[in-house]
Amino acid sequence: MSEDTTGTYEGTTRRRVIQTIGAGTAATALAGCGDLLGVEEEGAGQLTIGHIGPEASPLGVGSLRAANMAIDKVNNDGGVMDEDVELVTGDTAVSSTEAEIVVEELIQQENADVIVGAFQSEVGRAVIDLTSEFEVPFVSSGPAAPDLTAGFVGDDYDTYKHYFRVGPINSALQAEAMGDYMTYLSDRHGWNSLAFYRDQAAWTEVFGRDIPGIVEERGLTIEASDAITIQEPDLSPIITAAEENDVDFVLRFFAHIGASPQQIYPEWRDNLEFGLEGIHVPGMHPEYDIATQGTNIYETTSQSGAGGAAPITEFTQPFVEDYVSEYAADQFSAGTPDGSPMYMGYGTYDAILLLQDVLNEVGTTTPKDSLDDYVDEMLSTESGRVDSISGGISFYGADEEYPHDLRAERDSDGKVTNFPVTQFQPYDGGNVATVDYGSERPGQVECVFPESFRTAEHQQPDWMA
What we know:
Elements: E1 16-20, E2 25-26, E3 48-53, H1 58-76, E4 86-91, H2 96-108, E5 114-117, H3 121-134, E6 138-140, H4 149-155, H5 157-160, E7 163-165, H6 171-189, E8 193-199, H7 205-217, E9 221-228, H8 236-244, E10 249-254, H9 261-264, E11 275-280, H10 288-291, E12 300-302, H11 316-327, H12 343-362, H13 371-379, E13 421-426, E14 443-449
Parallel strand pairs: 3-4, 3-5, 5-6, 6-7, 8-9, 8-10, 10-11
Antiparallel strand pairs: 1-2, 1-4, 12-13, 13-14
Helix pairs in contact: 1-12, 2-3, 6-7, 12-13
């Protein structure tokens, strides 16, 4: 198992916080209570959710904040088994080894009944093994590698049936969705040639396998491709290759590499001749346009919940408004996603709401003691069951290709819809699902694909006009 300890987001010393999230302060309530004779009844007591993520990263910050908001909503709605739900947190940094340490502490010392979160697929692989040993349910909201479901759950169901992925859709389904998006770009702009680049990381392995065939099927051509090390990335050669091959756009899958024009080299922004497409996790930060001084305008990225720019469900934008109200800073801070929580936060929020409904239906605050009932109830989930902010939630069954994975939602033409694409467009005072920075704001986030969620058509960069 490879371990990623470097990249865009650097970890800090791990910290554990026990929170009653409505107030965001430390709590000392015991997780569970006995009856009058001091004997705990089956299913009684307080549910404790363990949240894990890289807390020095905007991804982790946004996910923890979304967890705070979800706990508030859950507890205001009666909690689980008429008890308030408590949150304990662990900082995984960007290390599978650190993740194993904090998850064991959350389970053994903080009495976590379920684990939610995780960012990297490498971390997901480590946590799924550890939680299986304790038979503690694990609901991930960040890792995208298909092997977490097709491999672990599919190959050894009894051992890994405790695992579900509430978001995002896995990388294989993401690749399919990107194929449909590339067809849209071809139809709209006549873009038919591309350079294809990706992180050397677990979540991108399937892109290396599937994207070339998907591109060929759609009548497009890959003129240059490479997998980039995330330890010491040198991006200038791949940009040179894209320029020399005169591609229409760069299709990139970067989670650990910051790759705005400003970050690659200062003069690039004035010499671009192609579009910037694909999945770029740093570019999901709602104030990325400010961080890059506007050099990121016209970049796109797929992201769960469309970054709050579109009404994916009736609950998406009210959630974003509440998030802004709760966390908006007086001025931009690169470490805090004040406008929306970034993609992992949408899944974390939905996971906690789903757990409330499922565990109330099962009638327990200790799902490990009713694991088969818990699994059956999770699998019975259908879209609309909870007030989801990222879209409909349902899972593939035990006998399907991706057991316990978030099911791809599709339109009438069979195209995947629950992995929308957003673009930073020049700011005109319009749709900005974030803090209002007035005339100083360079860009605004718009959803450009799929059509059902579109808030604006994709804009061809002005340097290509």
